[in-house]
Protein backbone atom coordinates (compact mmCIF):
# COMPACT_ATOMS: atom_id res chain seq x y z
CA UNK A 1 0.00 0.00 0.00
CA UNK A 2 1.28 3.53 -0.75
CA UNK A 3 1.79 5.81 2.23
CA UNK A 4 -1.10 6.76 4.49
CA UNK A 5 -1.35 10.43 5.43
CA UNK A 6 -2.03 11.28 9.08
CA UNK A 7 -3.26 14.80 9.78
CA UNK A 8 -2.45 16.04 13.27
CA UNK A 9 0.50 15.32 15.55
CA UNK A 10 -1.36 15.20 18.87
CA UNK A 11 -1.70 12.01 20.89
CA UNK A 12 -4.11 10.45 18.36
CA UNK A 13 -1.91 11.18 15.35
CA UNK A 14 1.27 9.99 17.04
CA UNK A 15 -0.47 6.84 18.21
CA UNK A 16 -1.76 6.15 14.69
CA UNK A 17 1.81 6.59 13.40
CA UNK A 18 3.13 4.22 16.05
CA UNK A 19 0.59 1.54 15.14
CA UNK A 20 1.16 1.92 11.38
CA UNK A 21 4.92 1.65 11.95
CA UNK A 22 4.34 -1.60 13.86
CA UNK A 23 2.21 -2.89 10.98
CA UNK A 24 4.93 -2.00 8.49
CA UNK A 25 2.60 0.42 6.68
CA UNK A 26 4.28 3.58 5.36
CA UNK A 27 2.88 6.90 6.55
CA UNK A 28 3.56 10.63 6.52
CA UNK A 29 2.29 12.79 9.40
CA UNK A 30 1.34 16.42 8.76
CA UNK A 31 1.24 18.68 11.82
CA UNK A 32 0.12 22.29 11.44
CA UNK A 33 2.17 23.74 14.28
CA UNK A 34 5.89 23.62 15.03
CA UNK A 35 5.45 21.30 17.99
CA UNK A 36 3.96 17.87 18.50
CA UNK A 37 1.47 16.99 21.25
CA UNK A 38 -1.55 19.13 20.35
CA UNK A 39 -3.53 19.59 23.56
CA UNK A 40 -0.73 17.90 25.50
CA UNK A 41 1.69 20.60 26.60
CA UNK A 42 4.07 20.54 29.55
CA UNK A 43 5.65 23.86 30.46
CA UNK A 44 9.02 23.70 32.20
CA UNK A 45 10.73 25.78 34.84
CA UNK A 46 14.48 25.39 35.34
CA UNK A 47 16.00 22.08 34.32
CA UNK A 48 13.08 19.70 33.80
CA UNK A 49 15.08 16.52 34.38
CA UNK A 50 16.83 17.46 37.59
CA UNK A 51 15.75 19.45 40.62
CA UNK A 52 15.26 22.27 41.13
CA UNK A 53 12.87 22.49 38.24
CA UNK A 54 9.99 20.53 36.83
CA UNK A 55 7.54 20.00 33.99
CA UNK A 56 3.96 21.15 34.53
CA UNK A 57 0.96 20.13 32.48
CA UNK A 58 -0.86 23.03 30.86
CA UNK A 59 -3.20 20.69 29.00
CA UNK A 60 -4.27 17.26 30.23
CA UNK A 61 -2.69 15.96 33.42
CA UNK A 62 -4.57 12.81 34.39
CA UNK A 63 -5.61 9.40 33.26
CA UNK A 64 -7.77 6.96 35.21
CA UNK A 65 -6.63 3.30 35.30
CA UNK A 66 -9.86 2.32 37.08
CA UNK A 67 -11.78 2.70 33.82
CA UNK A 68 -9.15 3.21 31.11
CA UNK A 69 -6.77 0.56 29.77
CA UNK A 70 -4.96 2.13 26.80
CA UNK A 71 -3.39 5.08 28.62
CA UNK A 72 -1.89 3.01 31.47
CA UNK A 73 -0.54 0.51 28.92
CA UNK A 74 1.01 3.23 26.75
CA UNK A 75 2.62 5.02 29.71
CA UNK A 76 4.19 1.74 30.83
CA UNK A 77 5.25 0.83 27.33
CA UNK A 78 7.00 4.18 26.91
CA UNK A 79 8.99 3.49 30.07
CA UNK A 80 7.38 6.30 32.06
CA UNK A 81 6.26 6.33 35.67
CA UNK A 82 2.80 7.37 36.76
CA UNK A 83 1.81 8.27 40.30
CA UNK A 84 -1.44 9.25 41.97
CA UNK A 85 -2.49 12.87 42.16
CA UNK A 86 -1.46 14.22 45.57
CA UNK A 87 -4.69 14.47 47.55
CA UNK A 88 -3.63 13.99 51.18
CA UNK A 89 -4.95 16.80 53.34
CA UNK A 90 -7.93 19.11 53.52
CA UNK A 91 -9.71 20.76 50.59
CA UNK A 92 -10.45 24.49 50.59
CA UNK A 93 -13.87 25.69 49.47
CA UNK A 94 -14.40 29.32 48.43
CA UNK A 95 -18.12 29.98 48.32
CA UNK A 96 -18.10 33.79 48.03
CA UNK A 97 -15.43 36.51 48.33
CA UNK A 98 -13.95 36.13 51.83
CA UNK A 99 -16.07 33.05 52.63
CA UNK A 100 -13.73 30.05 52.99
CA UNK A 101 -14.39 26.56 54.29
CA UNK A 102 -11.87 23.86 55.10
CA UNK A 103 -13.19 20.37 54.27
CA UNK A 104 -11.19 17.61 55.91
CA UNK A 105 -12.12 14.58 53.78
CA UNK A 106 -13.06 13.42 50.32
CA UNK A 107 -10.57 14.47 47.64
CA UNK A 108 -12.51 14.49 44.33
CA UNK A 109 -9.39 13.58 42.33
CA UNK A 110 -8.55 10.36 44.17
CA UNK A 111 -7.68 7.72 41.56
CA UNK A 112 -6.34 10.25 39.02
CA UNK A 113 -2.82 9.45 37.82
CA UNK A 114 -0.13 11.89 36.67
CA UNK A 115 2.91 11.05 34.57
CA UNK A 116 6.34 11.92 35.95
CA UNK A 117 7.94 14.53 33.69
CA UNK A 118 4.46 15.66 32.61
CA UNK A 119 2.51 14.27 29.68
CA UNK A 120 4.97 16.07 27.40
CA UNK A 121 7.34 13.23 28.32
CA UNK A 122 4.86 10.80 26.77
CA UNK A 123 4.77 12.81 23.53
CA UNK A 124 8.58 13.00 23.46
CA UNK A 125 8.92 9.26 24.04
CA UNK A 126 6.42 8.44 21.28
CA UNK A 127 8.09 10.84 18.83
CA UNK A 128 11.50 9.30 19.61
CA UNK A 129 10.21 5.90 18.47
CA UNK A 130 8.98 7.29 15.14
CA UNK A 131 10.98 7.97 11.99
CA UNK A 132 11.65 11.74 12.20
CA UNK A 133 11.71 11.94 8.39
CA UNK A 134 8.02 11.03 8.30
CA UNK A 135 6.91 13.80 10.68
CA UNK A 136 6.31 17.16 9.04
CA UNK A 137 5.76 20.12 11.37
CA UNK A 138 4.49 23.49 10.17
CA UNK A 139 2.37 21.70 7.53
CA UNK A 140 -1.19 22.92 8.02
CA UNK A 141 -3.76 21.12 5.90
CA UNK A 142 -6.20 23.51 4.27
CA UNK A 143 -7.97 21.31 1.71
CA UNK A 144 -8.52 17.70 0.69
CA UNK A 145 -10.11 16.40 -2.47
CA UNK A 146 -10.93 12.95 -3.76
CA UNK A 147 -8.93 12.16 -6.88
CA UNK A 148 -9.73 8.77 -8.42
CA UNK A 149 -9.35 6.23 -5.57
CA UNK A 150 -7.09 8.45 -3.52
CA UNK A 151 -6.92 11.83 -1.79
CA UNK A 152 -5.03 14.98 -2.71
CA UNK A 153 -4.11 16.99 0.38
CA UNK A 154 -3.10 20.63 0.26
CA UNK A 155 -0.93 22.17 2.98
CA UNK A 156 0.53 25.60 3.73
CA UNK A 157 3.72 26.13 5.70
CA UNK A 158 4.59 28.93 8.12
CA UNK A 159 5.67 31.23 5.26
CA UNK A 160 2.36 30.67 3.46
CA UNK A 161 3.90 28.46 0.75
CA UNK A 162 1.65 25.62 -0.45
CA UNK A 163 2.36 21.93 -1.18
CA UNK A 164 0.30 19.02 -2.42
CA UNK A 165 0.45 15.43 -1.17
CA UNK A 166 -1.23 12.32 -2.58
CA UNK A 167 -2.35 9.41 -0.46
CA UNK A 168 -4.49 6.29 -0.86
CA UNK A 169 -6.01 6.96 2.57
CA UNK A 170 -6.11 9.80 5.08
CA UNK A 171 -6.42 9.54 8.87
CA UNK A 172 -7.50 12.81 10.46
CA UNK A 173 -6.40 13.04 14.11
CA UNK A 174 -7.85 16.39 15.03
CA UNK A 175 -11.15 17.57 16.55
CA UNK A 176 -14.16 16.93 14.30
CA UNK A 177 -15.30 20.54 14.60
CA UNK A 178 -11.90 21.81 13.48
CA UNK A 179 -11.92 19.38 10.55
CA UNK A 180 -15.35 20.58 9.44
CA UNK A 181 -14.67 24.29 9.92
CA UNK A 182 -11.04 24.71 8.85
CA UNK A 183 -10.34 22.13 6.12
CA UNK A 184 -12.12 22.35 2.77
CA UNK A 185 -13.39 18.93 1.63
CA UNK A 186 -14.19 18.32 -2.01
CA UNK A 187 -16.67 16.79 -2.61
CA UNK A 188 -18.83 17.22 0.46
CA UNK A 189 -18.52 14.16 2.77
CA UNK A 190 -22.28 13.55 2.58
CA UNK A 191 -25.52 15.42 3.31
CA UNK A 192 -25.42 17.06 6.73
CA UNK A 193 -22.08 15.44 7.63
CA UNK A 194 -20.05 18.66 7.89
CA UNK A 195 -22.77 20.28 10.00
CA UNK A 196 -22.84 17.24 12.28
CA UNK A 197 -19.05 17.29 12.74
CA UNK A 198 -19.13 21.04 13.37
CA UNK A 199 -21.68 20.36 16.10
CA UNK A 200 -19.31 18.08 18.05
CA UNK A 201 -17.74 20.21 20.80
CA UNK A 202 -13.97 20.00 21.18
CA UNK A 203 -13.29 18.83 24.72
CA UNK A 204 -11.64 21.51 26.88
CA UNK A 205 -11.13 23.86 23.93
CA UNK A 206 -12.62 26.78 25.87
CA UNK A 207 -10.30 26.28 28.83
CA UNK A 208 -7.28 28.12 30.12
CA UNK A 209 -4.95 26.58 32.67
CA UNK A 210 -2.53 28.30 35.05
CA UNK A 211 0.39 26.75 36.96
CA UNK A 212 1.93 28.71 39.84
CA UNK A 213 5.38 27.47 40.88
CA UNK A 214 6.75 27.75 44.43
CA UNK A 215 9.94 26.86 46.25
CA UNK A 216 8.13 24.26 48.40
CA UNK A 217 4.61 22.81 48.88
CA UNK A 218 4.02 24.95 51.99
CA UNK A 219 0.26 24.17 52.01
CA UNK A 220 1.03 20.55 52.93
CA UNK A 221 2.64 21.81 56.19
CA UNK A 222 -0.78 23.24 57.10
CA UNK A 223 -2.49 19.91 56.43
CA UNK A 224 -3.92 21.11 53.10
CA UNK A 225 -3.94 18.98 49.96
CA UNK A 226 -3.57 21.97 47.64
CA UNK A 227 -6.98 21.08 46.24
CA UNK A 228 -9.63 23.80 46.20
CA UNK A 229 -12.95 24.65 44.58
CA UNK A 230 -14.11 28.22 44.11
CA UNK A 231 -17.28 29.96 43.06
CA UNK A 232 -15.30 33.22 42.97
CA UNK A 233 -12.38 32.63 40.62
CA UNK A 234 -10.43 33.28 38.61
CA UNK A 235 -9.55 29.60 39.23
CA UNK A 236 -12.54 27.34 39.84
CA UNK A 237 -10.70 24.07 40.44
CA UNK A 238 -7.21 23.94 41.97
CA UNK A 239 -4.79 21.03 42.48
CA UNK A 240 -1.32 20.28 43.73
CA UNK A 241 0.93 19.77 40.68
CA UNK A 242 4.22 19.29 42.50
CA UNK A 243 6.42 16.88 40.52
CA UNK A 244 8.53 14.35 42.44
CA UNK A 245 11.81 16.03 43.38
CA UNK A 246 10.91 19.25 41.55
CA UNK A 247 9.67 22.69 42.49
CA UNK A 248 6.22 22.78 44.07
CA UNK A 249 3.20 23.97 42.11
CA UNK A 250 -0.49 24.67 42.33
CA UNK A 251 -2.47 24.46 39.12
CA UNK A 252 -6.01 25.33 38.16
CA UNK A 253 -8.62 25.88 35.50
CA UNK A 254 -9.75 29.46 34.89
CA UNK A 255 -13.50 29.87 35.29
CA UNK A 256 -13.72 33.12 33.38
CA UNK A 257 -14.90 32.69 29.78
CA UNK A 258 -12.47 33.40 26.90
CA UNK A 259 -13.75 36.94 26.21
CA UNK A 260 -13.25 37.97 29.86
CA UNK A 261 -9.76 36.43 29.88
CA UNK A 262 -8.96 38.44 26.79
CA UNK A 263 -10.04 41.70 28.46
CA UNK A 264 -8.06 40.92 31.62
CA UNK A 265 -4.91 39.94 29.68
CA UNK A 266 -1.71 39.76 31.74
CA UNK A 267 -3.52 40.80 34.93
CA UNK A 268 -4.87 37.24 35.12
CA UNK A 269 -1.60 36.02 36.68
CA UNK A 270 -1.85 38.61 39.50
CA UNK A 271 -5.51 37.76 40.09
CA UNK A 272 -4.63 34.05 40.37
CA UNK A 273 -1.80 34.71 42.83
CA UNK A 274 -4.15 36.91 44.92
CA UNK A 275 -6.74 34.13 44.95
CA UNK A 276 -4.18 31.50 46.00
CA UNK A 277 -2.96 33.82 48.78
CA UNK A 278 -6.52 34.07 50.08
CA UNK A 279 -6.92 30.29 49.96
CA UNK A 280 -3.52 29.05 51.11
CA UNK A 281 -2.00 31.93 53.09
CA UNK A 282 0.65 34.63 52.62
CA UNK A 283 3.37 32.25 51.36
CA UNK A 284 1.33 31.88 48.17
CA UNK A 285 1.95 35.57 47.40
CA UNK A 286 5.55 35.04 46.25
CA UNK A 287 5.68 32.43 43.46
CA UNK A 288 8.82 31.69 41.50
CA UNK A 289 6.93 31.55 38.20
CA UNK A 290 3.44 31.60 36.71
CA UNK A 291 2.85 29.50 33.57
CA UNK A 292 -0.36 29.64 31.59
CA UNK A 293 -1.99 28.51 28.39
CA UNK A 294 -5.24 29.81 26.91
CA UNK A 295 -6.47 27.02 24.64
CA UNK A 296 -9.46 28.99 23.36
CA UNK A 297 -7.16 31.26 21.38
CA UNK A 298 -5.27 28.42 19.70
CA UNK A 299 -6.39 28.32 16.04
CA UNK A 300 -5.21 24.70 15.73
CA UNK A 301 -7.61 23.66 18.47
CA UNK A 302 -10.55 26.00 18.95
CA UNK A 303 -12.98 27.82 16.68
CA UNK A 304 -15.42 30.58 17.71
CA UNK A 305 -18.04 27.90 18.42
CA UNK A 306 -15.88 26.51 21.23
CA UNK A 307 -16.10 29.65 23.42
CA UNK A 308 -18.75 28.43 25.93
CA UNK A 309 -17.30 26.59 28.96
CA UNK A 310 -19.11 23.25 29.24
CA UNK A 311 -19.42 19.96 31.04
CA UNK A 312 -18.26 16.76 29.34
CA UNK A 313 -20.49 16.12 26.28
CA UNK A 314 -21.58 12.71 25.01
CA UNK A 315 -19.43 11.70 22.07
CA UNK A 316 -19.73 8.99 19.48
CA UNK A 317 -22.96 9.78 17.64
CA UNK A 318 -21.44 11.60 14.66
CA UNK A 319 -21.82 10.26 11.10
CA UNK A 320 -18.82 8.93 9.17
CA UNK A 321 -17.70 10.33 5.82
CA UNK A 322 -19.93 9.10 3.00
CA UNK A 323 -20.10 9.10 -0.80
CA UNK A 324 -16.73 9.50 -2.54
CA UNK A 325 -15.00 9.76 0.87
CA UNK A 326 -16.21 6.39 2.12
CA UNK A 327 -13.13 4.26 2.83
CA UNK A 328 -10.71 7.11 2.03
CA UNK A 329 -11.04 9.20 5.19
CA UNK A 330 -10.73 7.77 8.70
CA UNK A 331 -11.50 9.85 11.80
CA UNK A 332 -9.06 9.38 14.68
CA UNK A 333 -9.11 12.42 17.03
CA UNK A 334 -10.29 12.08 20.63
CA UNK A 335 -13.73 13.47 19.72
CA UNK A 336 -14.24 10.62 17.23
CA UNK A 337 -13.95 7.89 19.88
CA UNK A 338 -17.18 5.97 20.50
CA UNK A 339 -16.46 5.13 24.16
CA UNK A 340 -13.89 7.50 25.70
CA UNK A 341 -14.61 10.55 23.53
CA UNK A 342 -12.77 13.75 24.44
CA UNK A 343 -10.19 12.10 26.69
CA UNK A 344 -6.62 11.01 25.91
CA UNK A 345 -7.94 7.47 26.19
CA UNK A 346 -10.35 8.45 23.39
CA UNK A 347 -7.48 9.65 21.18
CA UNK A 348 -5.88 6.21 21.61
CA UNK A 349 -9.20 4.43 21.08
CA UNK A 350 -10.09 6.31 17.87
CA UNK A 351 -6.59 5.96 16.40
CA UNK A 352 -6.57 2.22 17.18
CA UNK A 353 -9.92 1.81 15.39
CA UNK A 354 -8.66 3.81 12.39
CA UNK A 355 -5.54 1.66 12.09
CA UNK A 356 -7.67 -1.50 12.41
CA UNK A 357 -9.50 -0.27 9.31
CA UNK A 358 -6.19 0.36 7.51
CA UNK A 359 -5.17 -3.22 8.34
CA UNK A 360 -8.31 -4.50 6.61
CA UNK A 361 -7.86 -2.15 3.62
C1 LIG B 1 -6.76 22.14 29.54
C2 LIG B 1 -7.04 20.71 29.14
C3 LIG B 1 -7.13 19.73 30.10
C4 LIG B 1 -7.40 18.41 29.76
N1 LIG B 1 -7.40 17.45 30.73
C5 LIG B 1 -7.48 16.15 30.38
C6 LIG B 1 -7.21 15.12 31.33
O1 LIG B 1 -6.85 15.41 32.49
N2 LIG B 1 -7.35 13.84 30.93
C7 LIG B 1 -7.68 13.49 29.64
O2 LIG B 1 -7.78 12.30 29.34
N3 LIG B 1 -7.90 14.45 28.71
C8 LIG B 1 -7.78 15.76 29.04
N4 LIG B 1 -7.90 16.73 28.08
C9 LIG B 1 -8.22 16.31 26.69
C10 LIG B 1 -6.96 15.74 25.97
O3 LIG B 1 -6.01 16.76 25.92
C11 LIG B 1 -7.35 15.29 24.58
O4 LIG B 1 -8.26 14.21 24.67
C12 LIG B 1 -6.19 14.75 23.73
O5 LIG B 1 -4.99 15.40 23.98
C13 LIG B 1 -6.63 14.88 22.28
O6 LIG B 1 -5.65 14.36 21.41
P1 LIG B 1 -5.93 14.38 19.84
O7 LIG B 1 -4.68 13.89 19.20
O8 LIG B 1 -7.20 13.71 19.51
O9 LIG B 1 -6.18 15.91 19.47
P2 LIG B 1 -5.24 17.18 19.65
O10 LIG B 1 -4.37 17.06 20.83
O11 LIG B 1 -6.15 18.37 19.56
O12 LIG B 1 -4.30 17.12 18.38
C14 LIG B 1 -4.70 17.57 17.12
C15 LIG B 1 -3.45 18.01 16.37
O13 LIG B 1 -3.84 18.39 15.05
C16 LIG B 1 -3.12 19.56 14.70
N5 LIG B 1 -3.90 20.24 13.68
C17 LIG B 1 -5.06 20.94 13.83
N6 LIG B 1 -5.49 21.40 12.64
C18 LIG B 1 -4.57 20.98 11.72
C19 LIG B 1 -4.46 21.14 10.31
N7 LIG B 1 -5.38 21.81 9.60
N8 LIG B 1 -3.38 20.59 9.69
C20 LIG B 1 -2.44 19.89 10.39
N9 LIG B 1 -2.50 19.73 11.73
C21 LIG B 1 -3.56 20.25 12.37
C22 LIG B 1 -3.00 20.34 16.01
O14 LIG B 1 -1.96 21.29 15.98
C23 LIG B 1 -2.76 19.20 17.00
O15 LIG B 1 -1.37 18.93 17.16
C24 LIG B 1 -7.61 18.06 28.39
C25 LIG B 1 -7.51 19.06 27.41
C26 LIG B 1 -7.21 20.36 27.77
C27 LIG B 1 -7.08 21.42 26.70
CATH architecture heading of the largest domain: Alpha-Beta Complex
Q: Ranges with pLDDT <50 over ≥5 residues? A: none
CATH class of the largest domain: Alpha Beta
Spatial gap, N to C terminus: 9 Å
Would you give the CATH topology of the largest domain? Polyamine Oxidase, Chain A, domain 2
Description:
There is one protein chain. By secondary structure, the protein is of the alpha/beta class. The protein folds into two domains: 1-40 and 120-202 and 312-361, FAD/NAD(P)-binding domain (3-Layer(bba) Sandwich), CATH 3.50.50; 41-118 and 204-309, Polyamine Oxidase, Chain A, domain 2, CATH 3.90.660. The protein has helices at residues 11-23, 70-77, 120-129, 176-182, 193-198, 218-221, 258-264, 267-280, 344-360, and strands at residues 4-7, 27-30, 42-46, 53-57, 82-84, 90-96, 99-103, 113-115, 135-136, 140-147, 150-156, 162-167, 170-172, 184-186, 208-214, 224-230, 235-240, 248-254, 289-294, 329-331. A seven-stranded mixed β-sheet has the order 7-6-16-17-18-15-19. A five-stranded parallel β-sheet has the order 9-2-1-13-20. It is elongated. The mean pLDDT is 94. Flavin-adenine dinucleotide is lined by residues 7-13, 30-33, 38-40, 59-63, 140-141, 173-175, 178, 182-183, 203-204, 207, 209, 295, 300-301, 333-334, 342-347.
